[in-house]
Design a protein that fits this description.
Blueprint: H1 2-23, E1 52-62, H2 68-91, H3 94-108, E2 116-127, E3 132-142, H4 143-153, H5 159-162, E4 163-170, H6 183-200, E5 204-207, H7 208-214, H8 219-226, H9 230-238, H10 255-268, E6 271-282, E7 287-298, E8 305-317, H11 324-339, H12 343-352, E9 362-369, H13 373-385, E10 391-400, E11 403-410, H14 414-427, E12 443-447
Parallel strand pairs: 4-5, 4-6, 9-12
Antiparallel strand pairs: 1-3, 2-3, 6-7, 7-8, 9-11, 10-11
Helix pairs in contact: 2-3, 2-4, 6-11
Length: about 450
Amino acid sequence: MRKTNLILSILIGLTLLISGCAEKKPEPKPEEFLTLADLTGRVTLKEDSPDVRVIRIKAKAFIKRNDIRAAKAKAMETASAQAVDAMVRELLPEEDYNNNYENIDKYLSSNVQKYIVSSEVNDEKKIFGGKYYGLDTAHKVNRQKVLVALQKDLKLINNSASSLVVVITSKKDIDLSASGFTFKDIEEALMNQIQTDLNQRGLRAMDFRNAVTSAQTDEKLKEQFEKISKEQFMAIVSGSPADKALLNTQIQNAEAFYTTGLSLLQQLAKVVVEVNIFSVSGNIKGDLALSLNVTAKNISTGRGGAFANTVINVARRGGPNVITSAMITGLVKDSYADMLKEFVPQVIKEMSTISVGGNRLIAYELVLKDFKSKEVRSLRTKLKQVESDEFRYISYDNSVPTIVTIIIRHAGKVEDLGDKVMEILDSKGINTKEPIVAPDLTDLVFVRIPDEE
């Protein structure tokens, strides 16, 4: 009986020991992590403003003298620069970016943190045989500050792409005499509010009078544009027939006026914002209400048209001691606060969509592990020979033993880049493991397979 109990105890103990070992998985060693693809983390940053974008970047840095802290700081610096570069690629047409990426990188990299609102590290660990420190990061990038840098400093964005024209209109029969102020008062206050805010966001907001003055670049049309009214201006934007646009006698039935006029406006602005005041009811000695409709129309392309529309109703309580200007200011601020909820974010988003589609050159690192120096030289020579509009050789780094990094720029799918390099290596009889391809990954690792003896 004792023997039986002893045997059962031993079996139970062994079972628990085996079970415990099965549940506890051994921690992977640093040298087992090879690429940035091994880093994964959850992003918590939010795009809580139309002025920012959250951009995810994976980056690495060589660990010098076993200084993890310095390597982490360097990797974070690299990731921040890449995040700003990604924002630039979103804002610029592919041709402009590809032709100027070196100047862009040189200018923006000098003060990257100016464009970063906040950053976070989602995952971090040693990679590449423990020689590098890798980070999976997310960055909240200020779109407006990058936009301003591209416009004013680098002059890579035409002003028309960031310009919009604001027009405030109303029905002719609106009588504001009972309200205690004139239509001109509320028009100018609302115009100043809209222009000031949008200009601070990196856009270029003009009223229709400034736009018309700017449009007087053609001497043949100068006389016509000098006397253009709001109705005529809106007729140009909407393409209304000449005989229905309340035009001056000298330009009625002149359809060419619209064609030429709109083409000029397209050089000046991308979007027209029309604020149509429906009614102003009440007076400053009692309750005062303002009702308006605001519409944004993209005039830069034939496929444009209205993309944002909001009806706004606001009211203020007056009284015997209320100051007229204060009541106007209050109504305007309340109206604009309503626009900020949906309308203005839609306008900012539309203004940022400067280019649709296209392939921009993105910086990639081709990491070669365990390659012979002769093989690396041969690959570099071949990469230089295949340079094109969609592929550029930049430089290389062989400071780390057994690892060589070749920096290139490629426009297109990352898997196509991997295939391109594999084909070159295959043609030279060099056997390598298939590189890992994953989202947000800008390094392709090629591990040399030893030759069979």
